[in-house]
Amino acid sequence: MAFFINDQGNERRQFRRIKTSSPIEYRFLNSGRFTNSVTCDISEGGISFIVDGPVPIGTHLHFEVKLKNRPQPIYGIAKITWATKEPYSSRYRIGLEFTEIGSISKADIATFIQENKVPCYNS
User: How many structural domains compose the chain?
Assistant: First the structure.
């Protein structure tokens, strides 16, 4: 199940995000080795997930993510637009903006978001 993130304050994103925990493989453009992680959230414009150490903003990488109930993985190239150190950890959460993604992948992301949007309500 995925949930909309309702951030208060300075929201600069163009697309609405939903929380999701999906397996993702990524590799930096100068590397031949893929690394595994799990996504934190996704939108039609980008994705975020956890990495083991700091990475420079502006770095490009290849990614492939398997979204729930999607027959094919979503793949493409994305640029790191922000990074935040995780509390009490050496790991970082990074946010990526999709730069190259196939038209089928874009449609799958949009469909996934529509099928899994569950608003978060404060009690």
Answer: 1
Q: Which of 65, 69, 66 is nearest to 77 (CA)?
A: 65
Contact 50, 26 (CB under 8 A): no
The domain of 56 spans 18-112
**What pTM does this model have?**
0.79
d(CA 34, CA 71): 21
- CATH of residue 80's domain is 2.40.10.220
pLDDT at 13 over 80: no
Examine residue 5 and state whether it is found in any structural domain, yes or no.
Answer: no
H helices of 1-123, where?
103-116
> What is the predicted pLDDT for the residue at 114?
87
Give phi and psi for 91, each to the nearest 5.
Answer: -90, 160
